[in-house]
Amino acid sequence: MCSFGQPRRTPKHASRAVQAVVKTPSTEKPKKAPGSESNFTGLPERKQDIPITSPTPPNKQMQEHLDLVRSNFQFVFKDIMDLDHFEDNIFFSDPISNFTFFRGYQFNVQFLRYFLAPIYEVHEVRQVGEQEILVKWSWTMNFWWNRFNPLRGLYDPRLCFSGLTVLGYSPKTGKWNKHIDAWDCLKNQQFPSLEAFAFTLRQLFQVAKPPNRYTPEFMLFKKYKDWEIRRYKPFLIAEVTVEEGGLEAADQALRSYLAGSNDRQQVIDRTTPLFRDSGGKASYMLPGNQVGEHAPAPDDEAVQVRAHPGGWYAAGICGGSPSETQVQREVRFIRACANQEGSRPLDDSWIFARYNEANWPKGPFRRSDILVPLDEASIDLWRGVDWDYVQQIVAQRV
C-alpha cells in the first residue's frame, strides 16, 4: 500500500480542476523551512491548547505556575527573566551545561533566545510533585546569524532536540528555584555528558542541506540519536506514476506541470522534496497558496492533483546519493527503530524524499529522508521517559 494513499477519481463530467480536501485560507503564505527541523507556526494561538494534567486538583499556587508554564515556557520565559520570578540560587542543569546562580542561568537562556533563536513546541505540562512541574517538549535552534555567511548555501546548521524539563518553585516565595532538562536521545543525562556533546557536534557538522524552497510542514515530536518522529500537516500534491522512464521522467512530467503545463498556464513555485513512494508514485507538494482552492488541472493526464492527509512518520536522514539497496537498508533500520520504541509502522509502505536536484550538489552536501508511516494509535508522548530519574529530580531540594 502506498503510504500517501490513493488518488481520488474525478467523475468524467466534473471539472478538471481538483478541489483540495484541506481547508486552509487561500491567503495563507507558503512556509520556507527545509530540512528535518520542525516548521513551527501558530504558537501564540495554540498555547491554550497545550494539555495540563495533574494527579490531584492543584492548589491555587500550583495552578498559577502551571498556567504560566503553558503560556510562557514555549517562548523561553520571554519577559520574565528577572529576579522577580526566579530565586537567586536557582539550580539549572542539562546534559551540556550547569548553573547554580540566577545570572548564569539568565545568561544561558538569553544566549539561546537571542543568538540561537530556539523555537519550542510544548506538548504537555504535568504536575509531578508538590512544587514540581514536568514539561514535554521538542525544539529547534536556527543560527540566525548564519544569514550573513557567504557559504550559507553549503553550510546552514540547525539543532533539533526533544525531551523533558522539570521545573520547581519555592512554596514560600513562589519563585522558580529549579530547572533540569533531559533529552530523549541520551542514556547519560548527567552533566557533563560526552554523549550529549557528541550528539550536538554531529548536528553542527551536518553539511547535507536542502535548497531553500517550500516544503511540507511538520512538527518534530521526538528526536532520537539516529531517527525521529514527525507529524505532517495535510498538504496538496501533484503526483505521477513512475513508469519505464524511471524517476527522472516522472520528475520531468511534474516539473512541466509546475512550469505552466496546466489549464491556466500558471507557473507554480517549485517545492522540495521530490517524493518517491513504495507504491510506484512520484510527487511534489504544491505550495500553501494552492491549498483550499482549485489547483490548476494538469495538461498531462498522467499527472494527478490530490490532497495528502499528512500524518505520523518515523524519519531518518541520509546524505549522498543512496542506491536502492541503501534505501531499503535504511527503511529496515527506521522500521526496526520504530518497532523497538513502540511506535508501530502503519503498513509495509515507505517514502524516499530527495531534496536536491538529480546531479547537484555532490556527495555529503546532498540531503534525502526516509519516511515510514506510523499507526497514530501507537504514538505515546511519555513512552521511554525514565520516571526514576524524574522522581530523583523531584526529590532534589535546592
UniProtKB/TrEMBL annotation:
Database matches in SUPFAM superfamilies: Probable bacterial effector-binding domain (SSF55136)
Top-rank taxon: Eukaryota
Gene3D superfamilies noted in UniProt: Regulatory factor, effector binding domain (3.20.80.10)
Signal peptide start-end: none
InterPro entries: DUF2358, Reg_factor_effector_dom_sf, SOUL_heme-bd
Region (Disordered): 1-61
Assigned protein family: Belongs to the HEBP family.
PANTHER family: HEME-BINDING PROTEIN-RELATED (PTHR11220), SOUL HEME-BINDING FAMILY PROTEIN (PTHR11220:SF50)
Protein name, per record: Uncharacterized protein
Protein species of origin: Coccomyxa viridis
Biological classification of the source: Eukaryota, Viridiplantae, Chlorophyta, core chlorophytes, Trebouxiophyceae
